Structures are given as C-alpha cells and as structure tokens.
Amino acid sequence: xxxxxxxxxxxxxxxARTTTPVIxxxxxxxxxxLPIWVGIFEAQAILFGLxxxxxxxxxxxxxxxxxxxxxxxxxxxxxxxxxxxxxxxAQIGLKVNSTxxxxxxxPSDAIALALRxxxxxxxxxPILNAAARPSQxxxxxxxxxxxxxxxxxxxxxIDQ
Length: 160
What we know:
Elements: E1 4-14, E2 21-27, E3 32-37, H1 40-50, H2 60-70, E4 73-84, E5 87-96, E6 99-105, H3 107-117, E7 121-124, H4 125-131, E8 133-134, H5 140-152, H6 155-158
Parallel strand pairs: 4-7
Antiparallel strand pairs: 1-2, 1-7, 2-3, 3-8, 4-5, 5-6
C-alpha cells in the first residue's frame, strides 16, 4: 500500500523568475515542501481560505462548500494524486451518507476547498519524493508583498 503524507498549506509566494503564484505545501515534520504553481485568482482563493477572509458574497469555493454541506455531505480529504507532464492532479474525497466518492479536481480548487472545510491534504509518498523540494526558508518579505497584492485585488471586480 502506498503511504500518504499529510501536507499543510504554509503560504502563497511569488516565483521571482516567472512572476507566477506558488502555493507552498509542507509536510507535518517540516522536512519537505511541495510547490504548486497556480494562477493569480486561484492563489487569491487559497489565500482567502488560508487567512479565513470572509467576503460579502460567496466565491466559487465558498459556494461549493455551502452546496456540499447543505446536501448533508462532507469533504473527508484532498489527495494530490498524480503528476503528469509537470501538471498535478487531485481528487476531493466526499462522504455522502455512507458512500465514499472521489471527485476529480485541479489541485488549486481542491486546496481552496480543503482550507474552507478544514479537510486534510495528502500526497502519496512517490509523488512527494519525485516533486518535493527540501525544506528551506521562504523569503518573508516577498511572501508579505505578494499577500498584500492579492488582498488589494477587489473581489467585486473579479466576479459577482
């Protein structure tokens, strides 16, 4: 059986070379990080979930959380389950009554939902070993600059 490693979202940073947002996942022991490059709006959704920012109207991930909960279902876990051609794949584990479902998802959407539902995020050991980087300090000044940029985006101007 493949061992799953629980990961935590520790931040959102900006890749200095590509100016692309990067979600930083770290294992519970703090030995490995898993960077996942995402778009600006995906990074914003993850940052809002990470910092528990509540908006006047629900964004897509808030809506999905509300629909799942109102249907009596529960998000049980997120699994970043594959890496193909430098693209990660994920599944959202749902419990609906006594039935377990696995729903295909982009990792950024799954992570944003996990943050809103307090669900664990797992990565199979082989994927983590193939893709993870050794843990190293993240430049706090750059992280803070990027957070401020994301916070300054006006939610009402993106989608209503």
